[in-house]
Write a structure and sequence with these properties.
Layout: H1 3-9, E1 15-16, H2 21-24, E2 30-35, H3 47-58, E3 62-67, H4 89-102, E4 117-120, H5 122-125, H6 130-136, H7 143-147, H8 150-157, H9 163-166, H10 168-183, E5 185-191, H11 195-209, E6 214-218, E7 231-232, E8 235-236, H12 246-254, H13 261-268, H14 273-279, H15 287-303, H16 305-319, E9 332-336, H17 337-341, E10 344-345, H18 346-352, H19 359-367, E11 371-373, E12 376-377, E13 384-385, E14 394-399, E15 403-410
Parallel strand pairs: 2-3, 2-5, 3-4, 5-6, 9-15
Antiparallel strand pairs: 1-6, 7-8, 10-13, 11-12, 11-14, 14-15
Helix pairs in contact: 10-11, 12-15, 12-16, 13-15, 15-16, 18-19
Length: 411
């Protein structure tokens, strides 16, 4: 089975530029995927291309992990309705290093035969002058053609695109040409929104070096309800445990919609398809087994076996018959008992706990009877949390059926 067959089996192919891709992938090659270092962590929206790299290496190919330290100075307009915030070179360098480290659980960088390479396009893009880029790349790009690309058309339709961002496509295309010349890279993979950038890179490479290269895109993931994948009520779900604790990470996967669970098992786990096919036969309450498997497998892959088992154990205790919410993985913080003597506003505590983004949102949750202190519903937005609410040395605030936050009271 080639890499292409594996990706097809897991529904990970959206588009491909090469009719003979199966034959191309029957022999070892180098392939790159780029990651945008606009934050010091990837979020789970990036997990599809990360899993693409994993399957690539497992099939015997060499993954080139490209962190866009140079292109991030410009900003990718793909899928964006407005320009991104400009970051400094120092910020981008820090982010690039952090992202490289996050990919190590998925990839083997030490294998002599096909070890992954971590590259930063700042190493070549930032060394070129504007005149160099104009002379070397400019003659090979048609502005008319660039204007037909979805990444540009979307911005034009929503108010326009800056000249700065318009050049992003040129820079990414140069990456493909450069990696083909220096590392023999003949395939680029990426999200479906990168199709136009990949095609332009292929054309530049062919025109400058005559190389026969290809591109393959993977689907952009959306949730069954149409919501943006990778988001929870509290915001992005990050790979970094400092941004998204183990328990919240595990619970995101444990609480996916029934319609998503099998698809996500294919996308985001390394389970054999025979195991996934068995889980696909489950229905109703039995489907909770598949959700637990999904949550455990993804958490294990990203955070490690110990984190997965710990988060699983705490989730089972918190939502099981014993309703034990004292586990270390339950989101929590210490609070001084003196703070509760005069009482703290419930709305402010909901925001402090991250259960609401603002007092207004907290107010709506309370008025909708979606908030409990321990097991008691509180529907008065002016309610205050006091020492009388302490139970077993903590105050537990629940929001809906699935979210909670524990304040451990210190003397």
């Amino acid at each position: 089975m080639t890499l292409y067959d594996t990706l097809l089996e897991r529904d990970l192919v959206a588009q491909c530029t090469d009719d003979s891709i199966r034959e191309r992938l029957s022999e070892s090659l180098s392939c790159y995927i780029g990651f945008d270092p606009t934050a010091d962590s990837l979020h789970i929206g990036s997990l599809v291309p990360v899993m693409g790299l994993y399957h690539l290496q497992q099939a015997g190919h060499r993954p080139l992990v490209l962190v866009g330290g140079g292109t991030a100075l410009i900003g990718d307009p793909s899928g964006k309705t407005e320009a991104r915030q400009m970051l400094t070179r120092e910020q981008i360098d820090i982010n690039a290093q952090a992202i490289g480290n996050q990919l190590r659980p998925f990839l083997d960088f030490d294998n002599e035969k096909n070890g992954a390479l971590l590259l930063n396009n700042a190493d070549w893009l930032c060394e070129m002058s504007w005149v160099d880029i104009l002379r070397e790349a400019g003659p090979h790009f048609s502005v008319n053609r660039m204007l037909t690309m979805d990444s540009v058309k979307g911005r034009m339709d929503s108010g326009g695109i800056t000249f700065l961002e318009f050049n992003y496509m040129v820079m990414q295309a140069w990456d493909f040409y450069y990696l083909n010349k220096t590392h023999g890279c003949t395939l680029q993979m990426g999200g479906q929104d990168q199709w136009g950038n990949i095609v332009m890179g292929m054309e530049l490479t062919r025109r400058k070096s005559g190389a026969h290269v290809a591109g393959l895109t993977m689907p952009l993931v959306t949730k069954a309800d149409g919501g943006k994948f990778g988001k929870s009520e509290k915001g992005n779900i990050w790979l970094d445990p400092q941004r998204t604790p183990h328990f919240e990470f595990y619970q995101f996967w444990r609480n996916v919609a029934d319609a998503d669970v099998i698809r996500f098992l294919k996308f985001f786990t390394t389970l054999p398809m025979s195991d996934i096919d068995r889980l696909a036969t489950l229905e109703g309450q039995a489907l909770n087994e598949a959700k637990e498997v999904l949550a455990h497998e993804v958490t294990k892959l990203v955070r490690g076996e110990e984190a997965a088992l710990s988060a699983q154990a705490d989730a089972r205790k918190a939502f099981g018959a014993k309703n034990d919410v004292t586990g270390d993985n339950i989101p929590h913080e210490n609070i001084a008992g003196s703070e509760l003597e005069e009482g703290l506003g419930l709305l402010s505590l909901l925001v402090r706990a991250g259960l609401a983004k603002s007092n207004g949102e907290a107010r709506r949750l309370v008025q909708g009877r979606g908030v409990r202190i321990h097991d008691t519903v509180v529907d008065d937005p002016s309610a205050r949390v006091t020492s009388a609410d302490i139970n077993d040395s903590f105050v537990l605030i629940r929001c809906g059926k699935k979210r909670m936050y524990r304040f451990d009271v210190q003397a």
